[in-house]
Amino acid sequence: MRQLFYTLLFLGSLPFLLPAQTSMVTFGKNRVQHHRDFDEWMRYESDNFVTYWYGEGRNIGQSVVQMAEYDFNYIQGILEHRINEKLQIIVYVDLTDLKQSNIGSEEAFTNVAGQTKIAGNKIFVYFNGDHNDLRRQIREGIASVYLEAMLFGSNLQEIVQNAVLLNLPDWFKDGLVAYVGQSWNTQLDNELRPLLVNSEDRDFEALAEKHAQLLGHAFWFFVAETYGLSTVSNLLYLTRINRSVESGFLYVLGTPYATTLNDWRNFFNRRYALDRSDREAPAEQPVEVRNKREVPLTQLKLSPDGQRILYVLNEIGRYKVFMQDLNTGEREIIHKGGFRNAIQATDYNYPLVAWNPSGQEISILYEHRDIPRLIRYNLLEKKSVEEPLGTEYHRVYSMEYVNPSVLVLSATVQGFSDIFLYYPATRQSQRITADFWDDLDAAPVQVRGRTGILFASNRVDTLLQPARLDTLLPINTYDLFYYDLENKPGELVRVTNTPLANERQPIAIDSTYFGYLSDRSGIYNREVGYLEDYIHHYEQEITFLDGSKIQLNADSTLVELDSTQVDTIIVYPIVKERAIVRATSNFDRSLYTQSVAPRVSKVLEYFPAPNGTYRIQVSPIQTTALTPPPRTVFQQDRRSILSAADQLMESPEETITEEQVLEVVEEITIVPETMPEEKLDTNRIDIDNYLFQSEFSDEEELAAPVPVEPAAPSAIDDVVTMVPRPRPAQAGGWRQGTPASRVYRFRPGLIVPYRVAFRTDYVTFNVDNSLLFEGLDSYAANPDGFNTQPLSMLLKGNFKDLFEDHVVEGGLRLPTTFNGTEYFLVYHNRKTRLDKFYAVYRRNQRFPEEGASFVSWRRENNIVLGQFGVRYPLDIFRSLRATGTLRRDRVQFLATDQTALEEAPSPDITQRAGIRLEYVFDNTLEVGLNLRHGTRYKVYTEFFKSFNLEFVDGFNFDLNRGFMGLAGFDFRHYQRLDRRSILAFRAAGAVSFGQDRILFYLGGTDNWLLPRFNQSIPTPPEEPGFVTLANNLRGFDLNIRNGNSYALFNATSRSACATGSTNASNVMLSNS
Known about the structure:
By secondary structure, this protein is α+β, with helices and mostly antiparallel strands. Helix content is 18%, strand content 37%. The protein starts with a helix and ends with a helix.
């Protein structure tokens, strides 16, 4: 068995060691830089990380540094592993900027929605307005780097050995990374529940093929809950040692692999059976939306009259905005844009849509070349006005109309997501919030006769004060807050206070009620609420006989107070607003999106399904209170764990409900204020609210307590809040017990500019016979016919800077015949959108020749070539390329004896200048070795002009020599047959013209170990300028056809036979 394995290993390695000589056709995708922000990078080195950011990403970079250090020890504790070197985190302002980066290969940035990208020890993160999601990316990135080091080792021997023999299923690795990134939460629970309840696939592995990350995450959650958290690292260790998942399960868990997966299924089935009881299904009258291809639906808005809907379908980047009539079902495309991109992560944030309150205008916000653009489309005139949004906006997350001329936006500016009013007519903005807390889902409401804004935020207080990121991290759950646009107070009204739940997507219902979505029960349902006045507290004003006054809380007393000096004491109430909420739905699945038409009291509801389908319905708005929905098993377990860990406040601050307000009615006598209102005294000291500041800047600072405004008890009587100190937002899905005693102190003085420094990317030694630099051989250098490239030893090194904007590659190749050398040096400059490269190549070969004496003559062929090329990317798939070439070919006979010195012909030197123009398209996605999906093609033309430039006897420049032209195309399409099989089509052709022509040889195949040349096929009598290989033609020898032009079409079927089963044992067999 061992001999068979090594035999297969050797045979499977031959194609890698000995690639056959064939025509070299380069395609490739592009990275497009739309701005120059990447010109100035900053660097910050903390205890365990080196973080980089650019431009206005400074605030994001600081939060990344602090959150990475905050969770680092905990992640090390879970995985029980250490890495000596510091990890590098590269921070991008948004997803669009991340996709412009040059870092990483095409495979490193393939589209895996929701997964953090890594390359070596570099972690790529971006900001999407939510610091909780940014924190997830950081944790997943750290976990990915650690997992690669754990599973594949740290030295070369371990990496090679495990890469060949250890092939883990995707759910194992992706699920563990997701599990470390964030613990199980209500969102994940709601994604898995319908998948297990409604799916026809009962097998874990069958489900994991389609939902690897979710199923893997659920599995590791099950393992930790059932066997303990330490089991995770033990399972990883033994899986690596035994190079088998099945053995790791058996040795650590004590049960076979299949039994463990069955236990996992039973674990969740029991939970979800209890969750489905006492809940209601959505109505059975859905709105039909034609979407046969099950393209993701990203935006959904109901018109003000309730008769039409707007929605967006986004197919991996190619989006369409539809307007559909609810009565007739007819729809029309209002706007479309983008292109399908399966290589990079799809941006589902754009486009945003909004209905003007008039119902006759639609606003569409989309992004073009990293610039948000606003379209206002008039439905009556069928005309649109388009203009760029303000340059200060990095990204917009939500958009709604306050009135026909004002929009409210939730957007990122200078690295913080805040609320803005935008006036399209003048393109001016007004900032509502200005702090580091995340403010999302802004929606206008009309309550109590006033216009205001409801929005979701993870802030801890209600004060509208500019705040700087310091010792508090914005990683709490989301509550709702109300801002009065008419009175514009300096304080917000807290609508909800649920640290174990999130409230999102507020909507206006009528002049009294508003609504929102809450997952406090474990399933997102609708709640409604209204505002009322209440007495927040009492204050007293003491006036003395000399006219001086003191203001303090009514419950406060002065230790030394001479009552004889007191004139009057006035006690008066401080009246504020608060929200009273009630639950109005109890669905058995999460309500994902809602949109409302207040004038007709209708609401549009969107329920997604796990198989890509969804249910959309329009129904009347209900404001009648229901019995609070029962909590899911997951929510109950989480609360009990927190209670047992004594992590709840003794006097919880909760959301107020209508029932509790009606339980206790307190009569309060308000003492009227008799003194006139006094101007604010800026010198007065508030004796109840002050602190001392240390004069030492380097003193260790402990996290300050977070003031949380008191609120009345909640209707849902056991809703609790967390201890108000900086710590992980466990209610948002972070693991309980995350060790973080304090927030890392960020020191701005440690920020330094990044300086370009090269590092070794790789140094390789190969044995191959591939062609370098287009493979054009001078015919004069091959008088005996075409010579295939012999097997050669290639030593190549690649050096890059950190951001891979500059790449230097050099190499040396020696043929196994030891009759020559090849050198090359290439420099790529990809700093800007216009990529440039410089190349120098030299080849020297010597061949024996029959001479006029007994000593064989030796012919030396020498090629010196210099190239300069540019590439201008039109988008990620299309590019225009131009390459200029200077080339000198020299054929001479060496003076091996006196006869050769006297009688050998003089050197034949040919100098040429050329230019090559190309249009390249490539959207292929590599799914395996020599397996691709998609299309790629190029159309090219090339011109060479011979000249003579000499400086021997003065200056001589002659252009009256040969001219060569070339035009051609190469089209390839890869059609998927099944998971690991494709059908590859190829059509290619070229024609050469001019005085000097190219002689093409057809035939051969890729990875041909011993290429054969057909000598029986004659060549044209005209002497060509160059000879080269055309495209391969499988099943035929080289030179099965030749000529100055060619056309070729072929089709091949490719399949990775060993991967028809999911139990392929190693990487080598999986690509065979």
